[in-house]
Amino acid sequence: MAELLLQMKNIHKKFPGVYALKNVDFDLKSGEVHALLGENGAGKSTLIKVLGGIYRAEEGKIVIQGKETLINSVADARETGISIIHQEIMLVPNMTIAENIFMGREPTTRLGGVNYRRMNTEAQALIDGFGMNIDASRKVATLSIAQQQMVEIVKAISAKAKIVVMDEPTSSLTDTEVEHLFALIKQLKAQNIGIIYISHKLEELFRICDRITVMRDGERVGTVSTEKTNRNELIKMMVGRTLDEYYIHTERPLGDRVLEAKHIRGKSVKDGSFFLRKGEILGFAGLIGSGRSELMKSMIGIEKRTGGEVYVGGKPVMLNGISDALKVGVALVPEDRKKEGLVLKNSVGFNLTLAVLGEFIRGIHVDRSKEEKIIDQYVDAMSIKASSSRQRVGNLSGGNQQKVLIGKWLASHPQILILDEPTRGVDVGAKAEIYAIINALSEQGVSIIMISSELPEIIGMCDRIYVMSGGRVTGELNRGAFSQETIMNYATGGK
Fold it and tell me: Does the predicted model carry a pTM greater than 0.70?
């Protein structure tokens, strides 16, 4: 039977006027990956900060390997064998990998100076032991995010960590990098290291975790074995209802065709034809690299189109970018909100009005009253949770960032809204709000194109679905024919 590495018992933490943690229990076994799951504000981060010595609990106790332990500081946590790998990389960019790994624990020469040769040799041995083909003398600034994350893990192991906390470790990784991370986690398990894994990506939890503890409103809802639970049960534990209840699809009459694309071709698009009706929610499914995003970008001229025709309202149009698209009532909410959609260092209000500056700026005159009216309208319409419209977007949760991005383009009053992965990287509660917004827009007559890699989402929300594979539209499904099996058949090139 695996050793019990950690027990957190009856943990209470109160901030002015509110309990952040109420009577929370959590435990971790050696060689186990134990997920901590919950919506933003559920208490996950607070619990980890108590474990990591950043916060002190008012009540409760922490037991490490059978011994009650006081953790009053980050240094206490580190000395106890607890290492937290934060979502934001904590390495020093202009220092080498070896220097980062041994920071504060540098091996010394007889004269008391840093023994760089020994430090590099030991760091390289650690790196090689995890199958990482990286030179320990490289500067951290030259590494990818995934490589930096691996260095964080190696640093934790070098400090004799028995408990490693990983906070959203795959948020910035490619699929290949995720596989490398999972391989590394399996190595840590084999060394009897316990891992607390925080993620909102349920599919990852089923792949890598042994148990899952769900939190809601500062309380522990329950702990389940990964083998004995399912996606819907976890979501119900998180929010009190199943995800199916969020997909409120209403049968409604659809209008005439408002958009038609015929044989669109581009760099990654070989042949894309489809049409969209007024008030319709039209889904685009397919595997990564199938050409869904590229089809939309080629259609509106963000990427070069080498062939094909586009009709809006039955009339042929030549679109050469976002400006042309907006003139005919078409808006695209891009997939990567941080790189393509938002200016993270600027405010909520600044971002919400980026697409409609012409509505309140005339020459050098700025109509502040009109600007504030637009901002207030979309903060309210999108239920954006921020301290004020002046708060930096980069400081908001992923769900609220996404709502700002959608609001930015809704402010342009589009009749056709293209949403590329609209709920990627947001928690279940924010997903529900975005689904409600999409449904409300369609009922108002706005036509929606929804690109999504989550099949339950696209099946639950859409009136029709096109499937793409290899840059081509390979299938069209009406709602009565929806199934994950049929979609995957078309997505993998089947007929």
Answer: no
